[in-house]
Amino acid sequence: MPLLEVTNLSKVYGNGRGRLEAIRDLTLTMEEGEFVAVVGPSGCGKSTFLHILGGFIPPSDGSMRVAGRAVRGPGPDRGVMFQELALFPWRTVLGNTVWALEVQGYPRPEREAIAERYLSLVGLLPFKHAYPWELSGGMKQRVALARVLAFDPAVLLMDEPFGALDAQTRELLQEELQRICFETGKTVLFVTHDIEEAVYLADRVIVFSARPGRVKATVPIALARPRRLEVKKSGEFVAYRNQLWDLLREEVLKARQEAEAGQAAGDG
Amino acid sequence: MADLSPQRVLPAAAVRSPGWGAGVGLVGRIRALAVSLAAPAVLLAVWEGLASLGALPAFLVSPRIVARELAALAASGDLFEHASASLYRSLVGFAMGSASGLALGLLSGVSPVVAGFFDPLVSLTNPVPKVATLPMLVVWFGISDLSKILLIAVSCFYPCFIAAFHGVRSVDPLWIWAARNMGARPSQAFFRVVMPATAAQMFNGLRVALALSFILMLASELMGSSNRTGLGFLLLSADAGGRFDLMFAAIAAIAMVGLVCDRLLLTARRALVHGEQEGGGTHG
Predict the structure, then answer these.
(1) In what helix (H) or strand (E) does residue A188 lie, and over which residues does it extend?
(2) Strands of A187-192's sheet, edge to edge?
(3) If you measure CA to CA, which chain B residue comes closest to A101?
(4) pLDDT tens for residues A150-200?
(5) What's the pLDDT band for B24 if we cut at 50, 70, 90?
């Protein structure tokens, strides 16, 4: 049985002239332990897709199942790491990491032990008493990752988590995430606009079409794990990157034409 | 991996001290205290000097005489009686007004229906100086503690309601999503996200309300006091008797009681509001 099953998912906003079709007829299954990356041109509905999976936005049509159980509404079986992180600024690093376990009723020693284990996994144990504003961007990403890992969701849903980072920090975190997922066997759906990031991290890359978002292509990535950053220089990696770039290029151009047409219509 | 030792990334001085003003260590704290005491000290010295030269009119009594009067008031027990009567009125009014203001403000923040009821009402009545209702309250309840406490409570309600209401409205919706994602029930999202996220703004409202409670305590006591107590009543009777020394002593007592209450509120704020970046803003 697949861990995550998404069937004929659609999302339409508004109606009449203001009608906007964000996602059309998306079907996706993920096996346990799989790392799937979703790439697509900006505005293709990939973040909307993730927010629907998270249960924050209701779909217009279609269904989703986690481990065979139909889901609707948010729940800790699908841990979301938001693009904006959404750390609680009034809580320390440790306070943020134990939060989910607190509301789920874990006793204090147990939840702190779990949180500390994940903080040491992301290398932040020495900072457990710091507040989010005291941390750098990369460190905040690590806290958000530890926070979502700590409550052990069946699926991790990650929405461009490294988008706001500088290139060096981004690569280091990619390697770290790759190692953590390899060690913990996590099932991850990872949305990004960065093709190299997708190839490096994923077992399978799904290319979204320009709006409305549909699955245009699925590319399995057969690079051996664990992957070191050096793999990015290999011929195999570059071949995957070029293949995905060609697939995405058409969609990016289509999205741009549509945006320009929309602008022209708006001007007229 | 990069060097992530705390010393490397977070030099203690850079993180904990905002540089100017607050100071580091004992020497720094003594220096900060000296700076903050300099202005009042200079003012008092000039005042005292001018008074001893006989350069001031009779109603500007020298600080030395005011201090002596204050000491006499304290020794006779009068100071305690007047101050406790005033403090009772202002703090009971403050507690009633701010508790109801915060509660209804929070409720309005989370419920559009409640907001639809209270928000226009508050907008309409907020610009009215609350002290304008005092004559009506006096007709209704007499020159009693009750009319004073009600006036203070009404005045304290507004800043607390507004702070809590707008505090809740400015809570990042993503925090609520994150909370629900982590398995929080709606009530847990309220008490563990909305409340702490709004705490700093609620304290700002409380601080304004506390100052208002002292202003209206004094104003209402200047209208008279049925049991002939209160620092405002002391001021009123000193004025009637032409006792300028007593008048300044009453003003000094009000200032000191007010200062102590404000410091207590700030101490509570420090204990209850976490993660605030020095120099404003709570965003991480």
Answers:
(1) strand A187-192
(2) A78-81, A155-159, A187-192, A35-39, A204-208, A215-220
(3) B182
(4) 999 999 999 998 887 888 888 988 998 999 888 888 999 999 989 999 999
(5) low
Check CB contact of A164 with chain B, cutoff 8 Å: no
ipTM for the complex shown: 0.90
The chain A residue lying nearest B188, using CA atoms, is: A103
Q: B81-123, pLDDT tens digit by residue?
A: 999 999 999 999 999 999 999 999 999 999 999 999 999 999 9
**Contact flag A91-B274 (C-beta cutoff 8 Å):** yes
The sign of the dihedral angle between the CA atoms of A166, A172, A176, A182 is positive
How many C-beta atoms lie closer than 10 Å to residue A16's C-beta? Answer: 5
> Which chain A residues are Cβ-neighbours of B16 within 8 angstroms?
none
Cβ contact B9–A136 (<8 Å): yes
A83 touches chain B (CB under 8 A): no
Round to whole Å and give the CA distance between A223 and A238.
12
- For A180-196, give one letter per residue: b (16+ CB within 10 A) or e: bbeeeebbbbbbbbbbb
Per-residue DSSP letter, A133:
G
pLDDT score of B282 more than 80: no
Which residues on adjacent β-strands are paired with residue A28? A6
Return the number of other C-beta atoms located less than 10 Å from residue B4's C-beta. 17
Cα R_g (chain A), whole angstroms: 19
Which residue on chain A is closest to B16 by alpha carbon? A134
What are the backbone dihedrals phi and psi of residue B30, each rounded to the nearest 5 degrees, phi first? -65, -40
Residues of chain B positioned with their CB less than 8 A from the CB of A103: 179, 182-185, 188, 192
* Binding-face residues of A in 39-78 toward B, CB within 8 A: 54-56, 73-76, 78
Average pLDDT, chain B: 87
Given this model, what pLDDT does residue A63 score? 92
Q: How confident is the model at residue B3 (pLDDT cuts 50, 70, 90)?
A: very low
- Give B149-169 pLDDT, tens digit per residue: 999 999 999 999 999 999 999
Q: Which of A76, A89, A126 sits opposite B183 (nearest CB)?
A: A76
CA of A226 to nearest chain B CA: how many angstroms apart?
17
Q: For residue A54, list chain B residues with Cβ-Cβ distance below 8 A.
A: 177, 181
pTM across the whole model: 0.83
Among all chains, which residue has been given the structure tokens 């203690």?
Answer: B12
Query: What is the 3-state secondary structure of A206-236?
Result: EEECCCCECEEEEEECCCCCCCCHHHHHCHH
Does A106 contact chain B (CB < 8 Å)?
Answer: no
Could you give the C-alpha distances from A157 to A57, A93, A192, B31, B242, in angstroms and in order? 14, 21, 11, 52, 77
Q: Does B284 contact A140 at a Cβ distance shorter than 8 Å?
A: yes
Any residues with CB less than 8 A from the CB of A223 and at least 6 apart, and which?
A: A199, A231, A234, A236, A237, A240
Closest to B89 (Cα-Cα) out of B205, B206, B232: B232
CA atoms within 13 A on the CB side of B89: 34
Query: Which chain A residue has its CA at the smallest distance from B175's CA?
Result: A86
